[in-house]
User: Fold L-lactate dehydrogenase from Thermotoga neapolitana.
Amino acid sequence: MPSPCLYSITTEVISMKIGIVGLGRVGSSTAFALLMKGLAREMVLIDVDRKRAEGDALDLIHGTPFTRRTNIYAGDYKDLKGSDVIVIAAGVPQKPGETRLQLLGRNARVMREIARNVSKYAPDSIVIVVTNPVDVLTYFFLKESGMDRRKVFGSGTVLDTARLRTLIAQHCGFSPRSVHVYVIGEHGDSEVPVWSGAMIGGIPLQNMCQICNRCDSHILEEFAEKTKRAAYEIIERKGATHYAIALAVTDIVETIFFDEKRVLTLSVYLEDYLGIQDVCISVPAVLGRHGVERILKLELSEEEMKAFRESAKILKSAIEEILAEENKE
Assistant:
């Protein structure tokens, strides 16, 4: 006879109310992916362009005869009340002649405004920030909202980790699910693959390379560079990345839905992690129904530790630059 515990999660959590703020390519793709997974009983879509949100809501509703029944509608921030999870995918595009720092500053102001509204109407919700640069904007959302730091985090390097696992799997002839390696640090150019802990089917990756005897000495560097450059490659070809990140966010939401307590490389606020503090950056975190339950400290090689600290330094510098620029205004 099956154990009753097999059914404890699904009986306790039937479905969720999910809010999505920002209906660009990432936001709308995420709404579609969430609908296909059947995780929401109710989905509220918010965008500065109300007609866009209404259009997405109508389009998705017309697909509900083929999915689990879901109430989908365009709304305002007040409609976020009672949301279990809120996905933030809103941001502003770069203007001609605008510097990276100026764009960062404008997106930080947008994120602060969103944070004030979310904390006003849905202070107990779990918030997943997806807008890039995700680490910096997660930091500003958290600081402005004053919400529980266990419930505010960014999508971080969840997708980067998936990309790296896929590259290794394709090369070695395994399923990506059998490849265990993390990408930590910034979701960006200073990200750090943790090769020292990489395994395939319980065998250290370095040992697997010796068994395989198909790899040259630079193959891991190539994998790391391809992972880092993946978004640039896609943007060059089609203008944006949105399908894979939408699936990554849906995977995060599903982990919360089923209280799976999986380890994901989320962008979380660190107080004292390997000497790093007061920054949001991706590290392995245990995620469950009530948010981040634990942050795991990795045993890094000396080279990895140096690279991780440099990545944190880059993020802190970006935050300080934005704050300094705002003080001039």
Notes: DSSP finds ten helices and 14 strands in the chain. The CA atoms of residues 267 and 282 lie 4 Å apart. Residues 158-324 form a domain with the L-2-Hydroxyisocaproate Dehydrogenase; Chain A, domain 2 fold (CATH 3.90.110.10). The longest strand covers residues 279-288.
